[in-house]
Design a protein that fits this description.
313 residues; two-stranded antiparallel ribbon; 38% helix
């Protein structure tokens, strides 16, 4: 009798669980369209250019995961639309935090998502992830991480039997370069998990591999890509033989609010009865409860208080 290999175990993390659900190029594009108000199949195809078979698969995944719900809008023949559930709408915080990171490093007024206006104050939205208790912006240096009641190990998610997606797979018009950059960072499972591991303090190849349970060739490829994109820097720590470690750059560290937002979302929707695997404490002394605020007025920003401004003539 052939014994089955025991599954690799990885650290329980609400952020990792969130990424396992949405951290895929086509899933992110589908969510982007949903946040832009698209609800029908042909509308998703038109906005994202995704192949119809891929879209069918991603819509089903999001429906199964509880992010979208399918509603009948026509009886003969039956036609359905896809609406964000409360769980799906709650992801808007993470989308705004990613948008804020884009704007700080690559602001482009021609990008549609960079023309979001905070309706209550009428000012262009510059999203800020803040601590609900004290109102201060969330920065990685101000956070302490401790194990939560749901801490421990769990089986690593199964490998996806598909190659790494690229912009060449898009069948329609190319996305704006800023959207492409964000999708590339967050829309590849190993790239996103690698960045998350870097925030745990993992810097050396073996430590990253032990944390992620990833093949050496995949890890090498993603490290090279993140170095090329300025998210990580390669630093020599031993000369004979040469040994390198990979440290987050300033731009890379500035992505931490996204990790915190995804962790909070995962705690709310994916933690289950065991509770949060990790607890973040802010420097003010309160357990971090992150909220997205408008950089202009300091008030809450959410799906109901934002709109896209028309482009200049």
């Amino acid at each position: 009798m052939v014994s089955q290999k025991a599954p690799a175990l990885v650290r329980r993390s609400s952020a990792a669980r969130a990424l396992n659900l949405i951290g895929d190029r086509w899933t992110l594009l589908t969510l982007y369209a949903a946040f832009m108000g698209v609800t029908r199949f042909d509308g998703f195809v038109a906005m994202t250019g995704v192949a119809r078979s891929l879209l069918t698969d991603r819509l089903k995944r999001l429906e199964t995961g509880g992010v979208l719900e399918r509603r009948l809008y026509q009886d003969r023949p039956p036609r359905y639309e896809y609406r964000l559930t409360p769980m799906g709408r709650d992801l808007y915080d993470s989308a705004l935090v990613l948008l804020g990171w884009e704007m700080r490093w690559r602001l482009d007024p021609e990008c549609p998502s960079h023309r979001i206006v905070h309706t209550p104050c009428g000012q262009p939205l510059r999203p800020v992830l803040a601590c609900k208790a004290c109102g201060e912006a969330v920065k990685v240096r101000d956070i302490t991480l401790l194990p939560g009641p749901g801490a421990g190990l769990e089986p690593a998610p199964p490998a996806r039997h598909s190659r790494r997606a690229s912009s060449d797979d898009v069948g329609g018009a190319a996305l704006h370069p800023m959207l492409e950059r964000s999708v590339e960072v967050l829309g590849d499972r190993w790239t996103a998990h690698l960045l998350a591991a870097a925030f745990y303090g993992k810097q050396r190849f073996k430590d990253l591999q032990d944390e992620l349970k990833v093949a050496s060739n995949i890890l090498t490829d993603r490290l090279e890509r993140l170095v090329a994109r300025g998210m990580l820097e390669r630093v020599l720590y031993q000369e004979r033989p040469e040994r390198w470690e990979y440290r987050l750059t300033k731009e890379g560290r500035d992505l931490f609010p996204l990790v915190a937002a995804l962790m909070a979302w995962g705690d709310r929707w994916l933690a289950g009865d065991e509770g949060s695997p990790e607890i973040l404490t802010h420097s003010c002394g309160a357990r971090l409860e992150p909220v997205v605020t408008c950089g202009a007025c300091g008030e809450r920003a959410d799906l109901g208080s934002t709109r896209i401004e028309d482009p200049p003539p």
